[in-house]
Design goal:
The chain is built from 1 helix and no strands. Helix content is about 90%, strand content about 0%.
Length: about 90
């Protein structure tokens, strides 16, 4: 059973193309994995920043509420003092 050398060459060329495709696909997959890792790291950093912003926003809201309550108390005290100065009815 004789094998045509052109068939062998054709099959070898086909194997070489397959090998090159596997290598190329491997490189593409590695690059995609690297990009995914970078994105995961970025999301982690953004989540940490989000937590810090929430804490800061809560602190700012508490300070604003405290300031508003202090102003209300000051104005209430001023009204009370003016009421004390009024002559009795």
């Amino acid at each position: 059973m004789a094998v045509n050398p052109f068939v062998w060459l054709s099959r070898l060329a086909h194997l070489e193309r397959m090998w090159n495709l596997e290598k190329t696909h491997g490189e593409i997959i590695e690059e995609q994995a690297r990009k995914i890792k970078l994105l995961e790291d970025r999301v982690t950093k953004l989540e940490a920043r989000e937590e810090m912003l929430i804490v800061k926003a809560q602190a700012a809201a508490g300070a604003a509420a405290s300031t508003a309550m202090a102003e209300v108390a000051r104005q209430f005290g001023a009204l009370e003092e003016r009421t004390k100065r009024l002559p009795p009815p």
